[in-house]
From TrEMBL:
<keyword id="KW-0472">Membrane</keyword>
<protein>
    <recommendedName>
        <fullName>4Fe-4S ferredoxin-type domain-containing protein</fullName>
    </recommendedName>
</protein>
<keyword id="KW-0812">Transmembrane</keyword>
<feature type="transmembrane region" description="Helical">
    <location>
        <begin position="12"/>
        <end position="31"/>
    </location>
</feature>
<feature type="domain" description="4Fe-4S ferredoxin-type">
    <location>
        <begin position="185"/>
        <end position="216"/>
    </location>
</feature>
<dbReference type="GO" id="GO:0051536">
    <property type="term" value="F:iron-sulfur cluster binding"/>
</dbReference>
<dbReference type="InterPro" id="IPR017896">
    <property type="entry name" value="4Fe4S_Fe-S-bd"/>
</dbReference>
<keyword id="KW-0479">Metal-binding</keyword>
<keyword id="KW-0411">Iron-sulfur</keyword>
<dbReference type="GO" id="GO:0046872">
    <property type="term" value="F:metal ion binding"/>
</dbReference>
<dbReference type="Pfam" id="PF12837">
    <property type="entry name" value="Fer4_6"/>
</dbReference>
<keyword id="KW-0408">Iron</keyword>
<feature type="domain" description="4Fe-4S ferredoxin-type">
    <location>
        <begin position="42"/>
        <end position="72"/>
    </location>
</feature>
<keyword id="KW-1133">Transmembrane helix</keyword>
<dbReference type="InterPro" id="IPR017900">
    <property type="entry name" value="4Fe4S_Fe_S_CS"/>
</dbReference>
Amino acid sequence: MAGGNPLTRRTLCIGVGATVAMAGLGALRYVGSEPLVRPPGGQDEENLVSRCVHCYRCIEACPEKVIVAASLDAGVLNTRTPRMEFSDCYPGQLDDFRYCDFCAERNGGVPLCAAVCPSGALQLPVDYAPETEVIGVAVLNTETCIAYRSSFCAFCHDVCIQVRGEENAAIYYQNADAADALDTRLPVVDAEKCNGCGACEAVCVSAQAGSTMNASERAIVVKPLEG
């Protein structure tokens, strides 16, 4: 009996410590974690974080290579979970860029990332369709956008039409009908039409073309959906 008590106390301490640690991680989930743009089926943050086993299968399966593992900078619980990365492309290339096409022309239209996920962290809605899926929204920074700062630039507008088609394109010119506006057209994002595919971010030349010194990101980037 004398030897049992210390073991019991030790076990109790370990259990309490683990509970406190998990509670702390739960707090970090909301306080210290950065919202991230997730692959298709990963828009339920709580489901993704709780179920992701960090197997990297989604990263390996992505044919466009736009899924990467989140770093510690994104928060403890986000570390090694999948996020989308569209800026790792050479800017200004309308014939050689990578974006999320939701595998519309592959695997029967079911995103390969979600198809290979073994844990259900990437879980497509029952009514999933590649043409209606939304993973984020493009946000344009007019302070660093070349079109707003200095001269005409059409990369984001043109690639959106190229990828989405004229009718579904989410980027338009706010003064497209103005007289003699060809060289002063200003791009605008229609958030209601944007699906977060990342094509605009992939081709944006802003940070590389000197629109702003020491720019930390491109002028148009895909942001997570709210709430």
